User: Fold this.
Amino acid sequence: MGDFLHVPGGRAYLVRVPGVAASSLSNAEVASVLNWLLLTFNKSEMPQNFKPYTADEVARLRRHQLIRVTETRDVLVRRLKKMGIEVPDDQLAGVPAAAPASVAH
Assistant:
Protein backbone atom coordinates (compact mmCIF):
# COMPACT_ATOMS: atom_id res chain seq x y z
CA MET A 1 0.00 0.00 0.00
CA GLY A 2 2.80 2.40 0.86
CA ASP A 3 4.39 1.85 -2.54
CA PHE A 4 1.51 3.65 -4.22
CA LEU A 5 2.65 6.89 -2.58
CA HIS A 6 5.75 6.89 -4.82
CA VAL A 7 3.88 7.44 -8.10
CA PRO A 8 1.67 10.24 -9.40
CA GLY A 9 -1.95 9.31 -8.77
CA GLY A 10 -1.11 6.71 -6.15
CA ARG A 11 -1.96 8.85 -3.16
CA ALA A 12 -5.36 9.72 -4.65
CA TYR A 13 -5.95 6.07 -5.59
CA LEU A 14 -5.75 4.97 -1.95
CA VAL A 15 -8.61 7.35 -1.09
CA ARG A 16 -10.66 6.85 -4.25
CA VAL A 17 -10.92 3.04 -4.26
CA PRO A 18 -14.60 2.17 -3.69
CA GLY A 19 -14.14 0.54 -0.27
CA VAL A 20 -12.60 3.74 1.06
CA ALA A 21 -14.41 6.42 -0.92
CA ALA A 22 -17.87 4.94 -0.32
CA SER A 23 -17.34 4.05 3.33
CA SER A 24 -19.56 5.58 5.97
CA LEU A 25 -16.52 6.95 7.80
CA SER A 26 -16.10 10.70 7.98
CA ASN A 27 -13.28 12.32 6.02
CA ALA A 28 -11.30 12.75 9.24
CA GLU A 29 -11.83 9.08 10.12
CA VAL A 30 -10.71 7.94 6.65
CA ALA A 31 -7.60 10.10 6.95
CA SER A 32 -6.86 8.62 10.38
CA VAL A 33 -7.36 5.03 9.23
CA LEU A 34 -5.21 5.48 6.11
CA ASN A 35 -2.45 7.14 8.12
CA TRP A 36 -2.58 4.39 10.75
CA LEU A 37 -2.48 1.60 8.12
CA LEU A 38 0.40 3.20 6.28
CA LEU A 39 2.47 4.01 9.36
CA THR A 40 1.75 0.70 11.10
CA PHE A 41 1.98 -1.82 8.26
CA ASN A 42 3.69 -0.06 5.35
CA LYS A 43 6.25 2.30 6.85
CA SER A 44 9.19 0.65 5.06
CA GLU A 45 7.46 1.06 1.68
CA MET A 46 6.59 4.72 2.07
CA PRO A 47 8.54 7.71 0.76
CA GLN A 48 10.65 9.44 3.40
CA ASN A 49 8.79 12.70 2.78
CA PHE A 50 5.36 11.18 3.54
CA LYS A 51 2.80 13.73 4.63
CA PRO A 52 -0.18 12.31 6.52
CA TYR A 53 -3.58 12.49 4.88
CA THR A 54 -5.85 15.27 6.14
CA ALA A 55 -9.63 15.41 6.34
CA ASP A 56 -9.65 18.21 3.73
CA GLU A 57 -7.56 16.17 1.30
CA VAL A 58 -9.78 13.11 1.74
CA ALA A 59 -12.90 15.25 1.19
CA ARG A 60 -11.46 16.64 -2.04
CA LEU A 61 -10.40 13.23 -3.37
CA ARG A 62 -13.61 11.40 -2.40
CA ARG A 63 -15.66 13.75 -4.60
CA HIS A 64 -14.28 12.07 -7.72
CA GLN A 65 -15.51 8.51 -7.97
CA LEU A 66 -12.96 6.02 -9.30
CA ILE A 67 -14.71 4.21 -12.15
CA ARG A 68 -11.87 2.18 -13.67
CA VAL A 69 -10.37 0.71 -10.52
CA THR A 70 -8.57 -2.21 -12.16
CA GLU A 71 -7.15 -0.17 -15.00
CA THR A 72 -6.01 2.57 -12.64
CA ARG A 73 -4.29 0.04 -10.38
CA ASP A 74 -2.55 -1.56 -13.37
CA VAL A 75 -1.21 1.82 -14.53
CA LEU A 76 0.10 2.58 -11.05
CA VAL A 77 1.72 -0.85 -10.65
CA ARG A 78 3.43 -0.50 -14.04
CA ARG A 79 4.76 2.93 -13.00
CA LEU A 80 6.13 1.42 -9.79
CA LYS A 81 7.86 -1.34 -11.74
CA LYS A 82 9.43 1.22 -14.09
CA MET A 83 10.85 2.94 -11.00
CA GLY A 84 12.39 -0.35 -9.92
CA ILE A 85 9.94 -0.92 -7.08
CA GLU A 86 9.17 -4.61 -6.92
CA VAL A 87 5.49 -5.37 -7.16
CA PRO A 88 4.30 -8.97 -7.45
CA ASP A 89 2.80 -9.79 -10.85
CA ASP A 90 -0.41 -10.90 -9.18
CA GLN A 91 -1.00 -7.25 -8.31
CA LEU A 92 -1.90 -6.66 -11.96
CA ALA A 93 -5.44 -7.34 -13.11
CA GLY A 94 -5.97 -10.55 -14.98
CA VAL A 95 -3.00 -12.25 -13.36
CA PRO A 96 -4.20 -14.93 -10.98
CA ALA A 97 -2.92 -14.67 -7.43
CA ALA A 98 -0.59 -17.39 -6.27
CA ALA A 99 -2.38 -20.29 -4.61
CA PRO A 100 -1.98 -20.35 -0.85
CA ALA A 101 0.37 -22.94 0.56
CA SER A 102 -1.32 -26.12 1.72
CA VAL A 103 -2.09 -26.26 5.38
CA ALA A 104 -1.21 -29.51 7.12
CA HIS A 105 -3.97 -30.93 9.27
About this structure: The chain has one domain: 2-91.
